[in-house]
Amino acid sequence: MKAEAEAWKVYFFRVENVKNIVEEIFSRLGWKNDIGRNDVVLLKPNFLMAPKAGVTTSLELVRAVVEVVKDRTSQVYVGETDSTAKDFDRIARRLDLGCKVVNLSRDKTVIVSGKYGVYRLPELALKTKIINLPMLKTHVLTKVSLGVKNLFGLIQEKYKIVYHWKLDRILYDLYHIFRPPMNILDALYVLDEKGPVKGRIRKASMLAASSDTLTLDAAACRLIGLEPSKVSHLKKLMATRKIEYEVVGEAKLGMEFKIPATGLIKIGDFTLTPLRIVKKKLFRLS
Q1: 221: closest CA among 188, 185, 248?
Q2: pLDDT by residue (tens digit) across 79-109?
Q3: Of 229, 215, 217, 224, whose CA–CA distance to 190 is shortest?
């Protein structure tokens, strides 16, 4: 049974000056109601590799968010975990973002139970206010990589591929565990076709934002011509939640966006990853 719909707003912005738009986003989201003086704040970008436009969250965007938040609290962190092909410590050493950059795989572990599983999660992420900074891009496993999928990067294990067989259930749990109060979608550059790394990268000069991650993802899907129910983890979340939202601004990308076939085998609620994808993730570091 679906819960009653919550009313949300999703804001879309054409961007000429990133810092100015970030300040407006914070004002529109009423951020001071969510982030108090001296609160600990964690920014969760998509840093699946060394910075690259269209593939990882814009450093300019991250710096602008850090600058605004530091006007209210000095306890600001940017965090990411290790993954199959990524040692985040190596990336973090080269980042100058105006605050401490932390490898969440090395943070104190808290064991958290969700509806569908038990997870090793970083204490910092559980005890802070999270600002979610995902990318607008495709993903060969999930069709899109947006806000909910970005939370998958908070699982501390390096070899996250072992979770792909039940990814929809895991993302369901992570959404309900974290519920970031601020979500800013980076569409300054976008990537389509065979994401999340390879594909077509183009400048779009957009940002989108919402106080709810799932609502932002639904609106972002429609922005690129994809019905949210065609994304299996979003469909699972929407099965128990009605989504109603008001669009503020021009929700128009102005370019064709090609969505990849996932190449996954679905059996009920579970997913089988073809061996060729497993081999590529385990043995290729690109």
Answers
A1: 185
A2: 999 999 899 999 999 999 999 999 999 999 9
A3: 224
The CATH number of whichever domain residue 82 belongs to comes to: 3.40.50
Give the pLDDT confidence of 225-282 residue by residue, as tens digits.
999 999 999 999 999 988 899 999 999 999 999 999 875 555 555 555 554 454 454 4
The amino acid occupying position 281 is: K
Residue 31 CB coordination number (10 Å): 19
Cβ-contact 67, 44 below 8 angstroms:
no
Domain that holds residue 223: 3-283
Instruction: Name the CA dihedral angle for 280, 156, 115, 181, rounded to a multiple of 10 degrees.
Output: -110
Q: Tokens 């605050």 identify what position?
A: 99
- What would you report as the CA-atom Rg of the chain, rounded to the nearest whole angstrom? 17
Per the structure, the count of domains in the chain is 1
Distance (Å, whole) CA 249 – CA 136: 17
Query: Of 111, 236, 90, 247, which is closest to residue 175 (Cα–Cα)?
Result: 236
> Structure tokens of 157?
């294990």
Q: Contact, 232 vs 168, CB < 8 A?
A: yes
